[in-house]
Amino acid sequence: NKPFGRCPWNWPVLGMLPGVVMRLHRAYDSIVEVFENSNLTFQFKGPWFTGIDILGTVDPANINYMMSSNFSNYYKGPEFHEIFESFGDGIINTDYELWRQWRKASQSIFHQQSYQTFSTTITKKEKMVVELQDVFLRFMFDTTFMLITGSDLGSVSIELPEVEFATAFDDVGEAIFYRHITPRFLWKLQKWIGIGAEKKMMKADATLTRVCNKHISATREEVRSQRNTHNSNGEDHEVLLTSFIKLDTTKYDLLNPGDNKFLQDFTVNFMAAGRDSTAVALTWFFWNLSENPNVLTKIHQEINSTNLPRTGSDHQDTLLYLNKLVYLHAVLSESMRLYPPIPFERKSPIKPDVLPSGHKVESNINIMISIYAMGRMKAVWGEDARDFKPERWITETGGLRHEPAYKFLSFNAGPRSCIGKNLAINLMKTVIVEILQNYEIKVVNGQKIEAELGLILRMKHGLQVTINKKCSSLV
Ligand code: HEM
C-alpha cells in the first residue's frame, strides 16, 4: 500500500483520516475499490485520539461465520445500543434473551396474521412531475403505520403535507449516522450542551414518545372495550399493536405489553425497519428500469402473460399471483444487490476470535460489513459484478436462482435476518404492478443521481419523474 494508492494510508497520529477526507466526494465507489484491493477485508485506523478502529469485511466466509455458524459470539453490543438510543430496548437494538423473545413474539404474530399482501391505491392525477423517492417514503410511512396501528397518517395525500412524526424519524436517522462518524466524546458533549444533530434528536425523541403514546392509549382503549381493532382497509386482521398488547406474557417473561415504553419501542423499531428500506428499494428499482428499457419490456410481458387475480379475490390467490412474477422478482433482487437499502451492518465479538479470513478480533471491536460493496465484488459475483443483469437470478429452467444470504446480504443473514422480507417483496411487487399497469413513468433528464451517505441508501437529490396516466385506464 502506498500513501496515494487505492487504499487509505495509515499516517502517524491522523491514521487513515486524510485518505477518507480525500475520498469523501465518492465515498461508495471508494469503499468498493478498497475492498476489491484488499482481499475483501480491511483494517481501518482512525486518528489515535478518537479511538476509532474498525475492521471492515465483505468476505462471505466471514459473514457466514459471524451471522450464522458462530452467531452466539457476535452481538450488536453496548456501543450499538448507545448509538441507537432512540430505538430503546426494541428488537433492532437488543441482544441475548431479550432479543430472542422479541424475535419469537414478532415471528409468531407475523405468521399467524395475513400480513403478507397489500392492496394499494395510487394517485389519481393524469400527468404530473413528482419526486418519486419522496412519494415512496410517504407511501411506506403511511403503509407501515397502518400495519402497526390501523391509523392513516395521510402523509401521501395530494398536498404532500409535512408530518412531524416522519420528520422525527428523519432527524433520529441523521443523528444516529452522525454518531457513527463522530468520536464518542464529541457527540456526548454535543448532547450534554444540546446542540446540532443531538439537539434535533432530543426533540425528535419527544415527538416519537408523544405520538406513540397517543396511538397506544387509543388502541389499548379499543382492546379494553373489545371494539374492532382491525385495519381501516376493512381487512379482517388485527393490527400489529393490538397483537402486541394482547401478547401472552407467560411465554415471554421479558416483554411487558402493560408498559407504554415497551409498545413505543415496538412501534419505533418496526416503523424504522419497514419504511425507508422499502421506499428506497422502490426508488432505485424505477431508476434501474429507466436505465434498462429492455428489462422494462420484459416485465411488461411477464405481467401481461400472467393472469391477475380477480378484484376481491382472497389473500392466497394474490400470493399465488405474486409468486408467478419470477422475472420481476429477479429484477428486484438485482436492484437490491447493487443498491442495498441498508448499506452497512455492524457486529462485535463478545469473546476474542479469529475470522475465517485469518483476522484476529478482540472483544467488542467494531466490525463493519459493507452490504453495498458486497454486491459489487468481482470475487463474489464474477467479472460482471457491476453490470445490471437480472438474468443472473434466473435458472436454466426459468425458476428463481437462490443465492445464500451471506452472499446476497440485502436482507441480512442468519437468525437476525429481516423479519419483513416476504412482506416487503410482496408489497413492492404489488406497487410495481399497479404503477406499470396504469402509468408511464419517465425519469426527467439531466439529474444527478448519487447515493447519500447514511444509515439508508437514499438518493441524495431524489428522483424527479413525469407520471402519465395510460389512456386505457383513464376514467
Ligand atoms: C426492501 C425492504 C427491506 C430491506 C432491504 C430490509 C433489510 C433488513 C436488514 C438488512 C436487516 C438487519 C438490520 C440490523 O441488523 O440492524 C433487517 C432487520 C429487520 N427488518 Fe427488514 N428490511 C426491509 C423491510 C422490512 C419490513 C417491511 C419490515 C416489517 C414491517 C421489516 C422488519 C425488520 C425487523 C423487525 C428487523 C430486525 C430483525 C432482528 O434484529 O431480529 N423489514 N431488515
From TrEMBL:
Transmembrane segments: none
Gene3D superfamilies, per the entry: Cytochrome P450
Superkingdom to which the source organism belongs: Eukaryota
Keywords: Heme, Iron, Metal-binding, Monooxygenase, Oxidoreductase, Signal
Pfam family, one: p450
Keyword Signal on entry: yes
Needed cofactors: heme
Stored InterPro entries: Cyt_P450, Cyt_P450_CS, Cyt_P450_E_grp-I, Cyt_P450_sf
Keyword Transmembrane helix: no
Protein family (similarity comment): Belongs to the cytochrome P450 family.
Name of the protein: Alkane hydroxylase MAH1-like
Species of the source: Camelina sativa (False flax)
